[in-house]
Specification:
This protein has about 525 residues and is mostly helical. Among the domains are: about 190 residues, MFS general substrate transporter like domains (Growth Hormone, Chain: A), CATH 1.20.1250.20; about 50 residues, no CATH class. Helices cover about 80% and strands about 0% of the residues. It is built from 17 helices and no strands. The longest helix has about 45 residues. The protein is globular, with a radius of gyration of 24 Å.
Length: about 525
């Protein structure tokens, strides 16, 4: 059967289109969704948690299904689940169905993401993989990070967030039509392998436990809560049992194979994936928090700022393609450049304050976009392409498990640090906000003068409210700057580990069966 690269690219882009929208709509419209459905902010956060449950639990299942039923059936199944969930999210304005749908969105996204990467990696050559994967990652990562927030924030602020799911119905129908009637551009194979229920239960339990702890642990003040301590110990036990069961092949059949991690480059690739997820998500969440909570920008204005970074991402994409499309070049050589650029961007952001504007932030956002483009494209293409074609499905699964856990760790660490730094800043600043402090008296008088200039007769309650808002803004500003310094420290700590690991892997014997075919 003749391979058709352009048809493979079109099929992969169609499969990935809905995922970028779903990933960003919660970020831009969580408050509006909560208001429409009558939920508190904490209750609405379960949308993200359930979606991540679905994504991470479905990746190993998708790898098993790719062998058992083939990629065409996997594509059809992912599109069918996505279509049902898109219809529920766009038409059914009730919390329970929405929760189920968000879990289904995660399952569908994992099925289709694994499918899209697999048909490219299994059927194209060295250079074609670099170009096609670059275009795919542009559509599923770079554009959602930079372009989608602006448009989705418009929908959310007008309480039209459900339309972001309605527009996904058409591509899902297109996928189902292509899977049933369209020409299939590559061979499809199946294997009669048995499902290992024991390994599936243990691995899914471990994934759920880790995800819950990382996304919800902060609400229980972490390890000061006995239930969190008990859940942590239980998760560790289940995780150890899952690893032993998969390595020693307990149970009948297969679930997720370990062979993709057997080589030194496979192990180092997973470390790089986790670090990349940590750094990219860490900087993204810090910028979003700083702009919306310290500078008091709306999500619409945040979307405009993110569009500045898109130009940098395109530059990073070009650099990554140059590094990965030629087999004579080592893509790892551009990773230090991407890390250095990210450090510079974080250093510039650490020098900002609550009164900074677009003119102060755009150089940092442009450099951040450039670093994200270089690191994201280079590492993804280089790591996934290193797996032999018969290990592609499990290689993709392990890559995205490690990468997503790195992202979750960044969310957990910096949200916790933001809380700690804010509390510390409030305590420190509040020392000067008392009746005996000259600073407090001066601020009080200035606030009263401002209210009088606005033709308002100031009351003590109004003055106290304004002073508390100023204190909160100052505390958030200090905490935000300190968090940028924390991520700089984290990157400086992680870089030597990555370098040592890559040098170790390069010095190990490299077997031919772990290399991709070069065309």
């Amino acid at each position: 059967m003749k391979i058709q690269p352009f048809a493979i690219l079109a099929l992969a882009l169609l499969a990935l289109f809905p995922q970028g929208i779903t990933a960003e709509i919660y970020t831009t419209g969580a408050a509006e969704m909560a208001g429409t459905l009558g939920l508190s902010a904490d209750e609405a956060s379960w949308f993200k948690t359930l979606n991540m449950f679905g994504q991470l639990m479905a990746f190993p299942l998708a790898a098993w299904l790719s062998y058992r039923i083939g990629y065409r059936a996997l594509f059809r199944l992912g599109a069918g689940i996505g279509l049902i969930c898109a219809l529920i999210s766009s038409l059914w304005m009730s919390s329970a169905p929405q929760m189920i749908a968000w879990f289904g969105h995660g399952v569908s996204a994992s099925f289709l993401l694994l499918f899209a990467h697999a048909i490219v990696l299994r059927n194209l050559g060295y250079r074609a993989i670099a170009f096609v994967e670059g275009v795919m990652l542009l559509s599923v990562v770079l554009i959602p990070l930079s372009i989608y927030p602006y448009f989705l924030s418009h929908l959310a602020e007008n309480n039209l967030w459900h339309w972001s799911f309605a527009v996904q119905v058409i591509p899902f129908i297109g996928m189902l039509y292509w899977a049933r009637f369209g020409h299939w551009p590559c061979p499809d194979e199946r294997q009669k392998i048995r499902f290992n229920f024991l390994q599936a239960v243990l691995l899914s339990g471990f994934i759920c436990g880790v995800t819950y702890l990382l996304l919800r642990g902060e609400r229980f003040n972490w390890f000061r809560d006995p239930e969190i301590i008990e859940l942590t110990l239980l998760t560790l036990v289940i995780g150890a049992a899952a690893i032993i069961a998969m390595r020693r092949r307990w149970g009948k059949g297969e679930y997720l194979r370990f062979k993709a991690l057997a080589s030194p480059h496979g192990k180092v690739g997973m470390l790089d994936a986790a670090v990349a997820g940590f750094v990219i998500m860490g900087t993204t969440i810090l910028v979003s928090t700083y702009v919306t909570q310290v500078m008091h920008y709306s999500h619409e204005h945040l979307g405009e700022l993110e569009m500045i970074g898109f130009a940098g991402m395109i530059g990073g994409l070009i650099i990554a393609l140059i590094a990965t499309c030629n087999p004579k070049r080592n893509p790892e050589n551009v990773i230090p450049a991407g890390v250095s650029i990210m450090l510079l961007a974080c250093a510039l952001l650490a020098g900002s304050n609550a009164h900074s504007g677009v003119s102060d932030l755009w150089p940092a956002l442009l450099l951040k976009g450039l670093a994200v483009g270089i690191l994201n494209i280079t590492l993804t293409v280089h790591i996934l392409r290193s797996f032999p074609k018969h290990q592609v499905a499990e290689g993709i699964t392990w890559f995205y498990l490690f990468r997503n856990f790195g992202s979750l760790l960044a969310i957990t660490e910096f949200s916790r640090l933001m809380y700690i730094e804010t509390v510390g800043s409030v305590s420190k600043l509040a020392e000067n906000y008392n009746a005996s402090s000259e600073t407090f008296v001066l601020h009080q008088q200035m606030t009263a003068d401002l209210l009088q200039q606005g033709m308002i007769n100031p009351s003590s309650e109004q003055i106290a409210l304004l002073l508390s808002e100023q204190l909160k803004t100052q505390a958030m500003s200090v905490a935000g700057v300190n968090n940028f310094q924390w991520i700089i420290f984290s990157i400086i700590l992680l870089v030597p580990i990555m370098v040592i690991a890559m040098k170790w892997a390069n010095n190990q014997p490299h077997h031919q069966d772990n290399e991709s075919e070069v065309h």
